[in-house]
């Protein structure tokens, strides 16, 4: 059975870009100019593994769970 990969979308205050990061990772997966682009990419990544996407606002608080997949992994 594979592991679920959950992702978080948040704003990097230093660069002003929206970051996609897998939970438990210190490296960013991708960065985007807009939150919408970052959420779309995080959904793509999470869909492959059946994970979820948490979207944080500029203050760092989770404002939405954008995707919850019930995908069964083999």
Features:
74 residues; alpha+beta; 5-stranded mixed β-sheet; 1 helix; 36% strand
Overview of the structural elements:
The structure is a single chain. With 74 residues, the protein is an alpha+beta fold. Helix content is 20%, strand content 36%. A five-stranded mixed β-sheet has the order 3-2-1-4-5, covered by helices on one side. A hairpin with a 7-residue loop joins strand 2 (17-22) and strand 3 (30-32). The radius of gyration is 12 Å and the shape is globular. The termini are close together.
Radius of gyration (CA) equals 12 Å
> Structural class, judged by helices and strands?
alpha+beta
Helix share bin:
10-25%
Could you report the average pLDDT, rounded to the nearest whole number?
84
Distance between the termini: 5 Å
What's the count of strands? 5
* Tally of distinct domains: 1
Residues in β-strands, percent: 35-45%
Main sheet strand line-up: 3-2-1-4-5
Ranges with pLDDT <50 over ≥5 residues?
Answer: none
Shape category? globular
Number of helices: 1
Instruction: Spell the H/E element sequence.
Output: EEEHEE
Largest sheet: 5 strands, mixed
Write the layout of secondary structure elements.
Blueprint (H helix, E strand, L loop, with lengths): L6 E6 L4 E6 L7 E3 L2 H15 L2 E5 L5 E7 L6
Parallel strand pairs: 1-4
Antiparallel strand pairs: 1-2, 2-3, 4-5
Quick synopsis:
Helix content is 20%, strand content 36%. The protein has one helix spanning 35-49; strands spanning 7-12, 17-22, 30-32, 52-56, 62-68. A hairpin with a 5-residue loop joins strand 4 and strand 5.
